[in-house]
């Protein structure tokens, strides 16, 4: 399904993420069927094992994500990152290294930036989470999102949700007073494309713009 | 990651009694190291006791000292205005560690208990006496660029990874702990240990004990202190070598000196002999170089980390020079 978005008067045509994800899911499922004996296929088709395991091994969790309250059951080992991506289908937050080394999974919990890959969802009882999906107001982008587009603060875009969440926090914390300070306090967000210069430009512009974040 | 049970403890007492009943349980606070170790299957507890609900987050300024709760976040300590004024060395060390996201999650107690980042400890396909006692050491004769030059043994040459702890060792901090046998205090420099034949033990915490707070005495190093961290990139990397310096200088004479190194040993490495040498000496490059030479006595490298024998004394001289010039 093609989707048209208007960004800074440029019309960007892109393939929606969901179609690519669906394709990967379906093709892996077909491969699994082809390789598995029929009884296992039946069990897995009905997700029996998952349902039994879920009943035995989950804990209840109340959590607010981007203003929406959820009452869920999660395995104690589920990370906040996997909860967001797999259970709540909020795939804007990215899984880069999954070991706290890249910052792609940065989200705000009760207004503080943290790494969702190293946070257990079961320990986030009654917190308020903000992800990249929660920044825009309707079709109006957040000032930091606009500044990243204007300053070309990305190339491949994979680290961008984490960079943007971290950039907003960097200003709110009062650590965006010079280019050096921004670089130091953004050092937990790695960009393999090397868009650092433009990322610092974007954060500087938002800081100097003085808009409410 | 293996699945596990999770429970919440609301007092240090209940946390200790919960863990006392379990053979394979662990406390979890910030989780920035533990969750990573669990993902890598380096540790696999059956039960986690979430201690974040315990009231141990306070920073309290008392006569002649400060006490910091074990659950105070690294960023909370680093950004406390009074800590900044009275203990700039601690603030510099905290700011040099990890990233702001991790500092927002990580606690003071957890920082002290973080495990080595030796790649053989993390790789479950490799031998490691720290992970599996008596399985051998992959780093000796292996890839050991990050490894120890002081106090290592034939069993282990891993280094302690914290920056905060290097400053706390230099500042003569104390650690308060609570366990099934009651409460006790430990000198910070006695908290972490050398590997010897039992590298699986990082510290002198006894079974089922929990850290409740640390205490730092006030000092006269607020003006002339520095934390120098040498690493592979400007920020967000573990130390190759780091140096914590606190100097008390009057009329260009050093009245008192504190020196500790990171990235060189299984524990924060206090340089007592060099400290003693500096007392009463004038501030000069020659003095600092002599102190650095003294500090390196007994250092031994293992191949890939030979460069630390040169980097070490240079870093000490540089840190002393910067601290004295402030």
Keywords:
heterodimer; A: 213 residues; alpha+beta; Ubiquitin-like (UB roll); DNA polymerase, domain 1; 5-stranded mixed sheet; two-stranded antiparallel sheet; 8 helices; 41% helix; B: 326 residues; Uridine Diphospho-n-acetylenolpyruvylglucosamine Reductase, domain 2; Enolase-like, domain 1; 5-stranded antiparallel sheet; 4-stranded antiparallel sheet; 13 helices; 21% strand
Please describe what this structure looks like.
The complex is a heterodimer of chains A (213) and B (326). With 213 residues, chain A is of the alpha+beta class. Chain A is 41% helix and 17% strand. Among the domains of chain A are: 58-134, Ubiquitin-like (UB roll); 143-209, DNA polymerase, domain 1 (Orthogonal Bundle). Chain A has helices at 17-35, 38-45, 48-57, 80-87, 143-150, 160-172, 179-185, 196-209; strands at residues 2-7, 10-15, 59-65, 68-74, 106-109, 112-115, 128-130. In chain A, strands 4-3-7-5-6 form a five-stranded mixed β-sheet, with helices on one face. A two-stranded antiparallel sheet of chain A has the order 1-2. Residues 1-18 of chain A have low confidence and may be disordered. With 326 residues, chain B is of the alpha+beta class. Among the domains of chain B are: 5-53, Uridine Diphospho-n-acetylenolpyruvylglucosamine Reductase, domain 2; 224-325, CO dehydrogenase flavoprotein, C-terminal domain (Enolase-like, domain 1, 2-Layer Sandwich). Chain B has helices spanning 12-20, 34-39, 74-78, 81-86, 88-96, 100-105, 108-113, 119-122, 164-170, 188-191, 272-278, 285-295, 308-325, and strands spanning 5-8, 25-28, 47-50, 59-62, 65-69, 174-179, 182-187, 210-217, 224-230, 241-250, 253-262, 269-270. The longest helix of chain B is centred in the last third of the chain and has 18 residues, at 308-325. Chain B is globular and about 60 Å long. The chains are: A alpha+beta (213), B alpha+beta (326). The A-B interface holds A 57, 59, 75-77, 79, 98-100, 103, 106, 112-115, 118-120, 122-123, 166, 169-170, 173, 175, 183-185, 187-189 and B 1-6, 28, 31-32, 35-36, 38-40, 48, 50, 52, 95, 98-102, 104-105, 234-236.
């Amino acid at each position: 399904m093609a989707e048209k978005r208007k960004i800074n008067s440029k019309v960007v045509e892109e393939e929606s993420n969901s179609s690519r994800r669906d394709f990967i899911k379906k093709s892996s499922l077909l491969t699994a069927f082809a390789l598995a004996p029929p009884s296992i296929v039946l069990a897995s088709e009905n997700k029996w094992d998952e349902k039994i395991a879920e009943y035995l091994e989950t804990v209840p969790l109340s959590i607010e994500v981007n203003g929406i309250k959820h009452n869920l059951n999660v395995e104690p080992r589920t990370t906040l990152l996997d909860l967001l991506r797999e259970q709540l289908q909020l795939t804007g937050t990215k899984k880069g290294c999954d070991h706290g080394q890249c910052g792609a999974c940065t989200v705000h919990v009760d207004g503080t930036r943290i790494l969702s890959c190293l946070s257990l969802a079961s320990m986030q009882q009654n917190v308020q989470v903000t992800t990249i999906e929660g920044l825009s107001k309707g079709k109006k982008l957040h000032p930091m999102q606009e500044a990243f587009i204007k300053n070309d603060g990305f190339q491949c875009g994979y680290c961008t949700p984490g960079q943007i969440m971290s950039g907003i926090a960097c200003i709110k914390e009062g650590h965006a007073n010079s280019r050096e300070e921004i670089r130091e306090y953004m050092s937990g967000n790695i960009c393999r494309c090397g868009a650092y210069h433009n990322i610092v430009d974007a954060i500087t512009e938002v800081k100097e713009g003085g808009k409410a974040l | 990651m293996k699945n596990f049970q999770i429970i919440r403890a609301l007092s240090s007492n209940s946390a200790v009694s919960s863990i006392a009943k379990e053979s394979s349980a662990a406390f979890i606070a910030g989780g920035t190291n533990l969750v990573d170790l669990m993902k890598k299957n380096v540790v696999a507890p059956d039960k986690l006791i979430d201690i974040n609900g315990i009231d141990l987050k306070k920073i309290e300024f008392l006569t002649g000292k400060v006490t910091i709760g074990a659950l105070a976040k690294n960023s909370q300590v680093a950004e406390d205005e009074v800590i900044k004024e009275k203990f700039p060395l601690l603030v510099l060390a905290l700011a040099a560690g990890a990233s702001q996201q991790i500092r927002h999650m990580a606690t003071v107690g957890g920082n002290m208990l973080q495990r080595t980042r030796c790649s053989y400890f993390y790789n479950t396909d490799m031998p490691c006496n720290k992970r599996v006692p008596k399985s051998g050491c992959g780093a000796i004769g292996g890839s050991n660029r990050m490894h120890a030059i002081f106090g290592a043994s034939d069993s282990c040459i891993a280094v302690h990874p914290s920056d905060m702890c290097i400053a706390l060792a230099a500042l003569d901090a104390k650690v308060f702990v609570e366990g099934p046998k009651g409460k006790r205090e430990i000198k910070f420099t006695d908290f972490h240990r050398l590997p010897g034949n039992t590298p699986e033990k990082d510290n002198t915490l006894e079974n089922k004990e929990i850290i409740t707070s640390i205490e730092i005495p006030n000092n006269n190093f607020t003006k002339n202190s520095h934390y120098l961290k040498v690493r592979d990139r400007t920020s967000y990397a573990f130390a190759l070598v780091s140096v914590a310096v606190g100097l008390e200088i009057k009329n260009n004479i050093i009245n008192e000196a504190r020196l500790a190194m990171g990235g060189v040993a299984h524990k924060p490495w206090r340089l007592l002999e060099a400290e003693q040498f500096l007392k009463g000496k004038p501030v000069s490059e020659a003095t600092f170089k002599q102190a650095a030479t003294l500090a390196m006595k007994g250092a031994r490298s293992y191949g890939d980390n030979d460069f630390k024998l040169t980097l070490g004394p240079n870093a000490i001289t540089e840190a002393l020079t910067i601290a004295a010039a402030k």
